[in-house]
Amino acid sequence: MSAAAELTESLAAGITRRIADLGAAGSAFDGYLGEPAAADPAVVFAVGVDVVAVERIEAMVQRQGERLLARLLTPTERTWCAGRSGAHRARYVAGRVAAKEAVRKTFGGQGSGVGWREVEIRRGAAGEPLPVLSGRADEAFRLAGLRRLHLSISHDAGVAVAVALAG
Amino acid sequence: MHSEPETLQQVVEVMQQLGFGESDLTELTEETRIAEDLGIDSTELVEIVVALERRFSISIDADAEDAVVTFGDLVDRVVRLRHDATRAVAAAVKG
């Protein structure tokens, strides 16, 4: 298992544990992992986290070029990616890849078979990442009983990390 | 093992060139699972698929990529697409 994969698992376990602790403590967050989202629109029903090493993505893009980007990113995402320098582009792509994986993980078992380009990461008015689902991703989201999806992406220490919360 | 050993060997070579499981690949079977047995993650699988496309001049669509679970799935996909390409060329020459 790669260092990034180990970090991903560790982060996921930590976040899940913290949410469970909040519920166990009987705080205002009680029931975070309890009833499905339909019972309370504020309930977080699923969490997804993913970590991607920027250097690994940069090496992949150098080896495989635009063809690799065309499989991972939507045309719109590629437009935003165009013209960036190698390192800057790698950071951007790593963030998108982490975000797409994090979103897929919130679908649980329904996420199998969801394609990279069926989760598009756009930017909101304040620069926040906005996941837009299509095709099997949209279907998986509905089948998982989810109605809301929130996403955050961060970069540091050579990795991109994304956390998705769904309810 | 697979009915097209030459293609199978070339798939192995592509994977080795990308640095995947230099020793593990010698014990591959059709049932070997890409993720669980070889530790290849979804991003790495994308690179393998793109490298196979370039090596064999084929195009593996995204739906097919998502259906790849085992090494046999991967080789089957390449074999089928190579046959399709060969038939298309033969038909073009004939027609």
From TrEMBL, chain A:
Name the protein family. Answer: Belongs to the P-Pant transferase superfamily. AcpS family.
Keywords, in A-Z order: Cytoplasm, Fatty acid biosynthesis, Fatty acid metabolism, Lipid biosynthesis, Lipid metabolism, Magnesium, Metal-binding, Transferase
Kindly provide the name given to this protein in its UniProt entry.
Holo-[acyl-carrier-protein] synthase
What is one term from the GO cellular component aspect held by the record? cytoplasm
Q: Where in the cell is it found?
A: Cytoplasm
Which reaction(s) does the protein catalyse, per the Swiss-Prot or TrEMBL entry?
apo-[ACP] + CoA = holo-[ACP] + adenosine 3',5'-bisphosphate + H(+)
What does this gene product do? Transfers the 4'-phosphopantetheine moiety from coenzyme A to a Ser of acyl-carrier-protein.
Question: What cofactor(s) does the depicted protein rely on?
Answer: Mg(2+)
Major localization listed first in the record, in broad terms: cytoplasm
TrEMBL record, chain B:
> Residues in domain Carrier?
2-82
Q: Which Pfam families match?
A: PP-binding (PF00550)
| Top-rank taxon, per record | Bacteria
Which keywords has UniProt assigned to this entry? Answer: Phosphopantetheine, Phosphoprotein
Question: TM segments?
Answer: none
- InterPro entries per the UniProt record, alphabetical: ACP-like_sf (IPR036736), PP-bd_ACP (IPR009081), Ppantetheine_attach_site (IPR006162)
What's the source species for this entry? Streptomyces triticagri
Could you tell me what this protein is called?
Acyl carrier protein
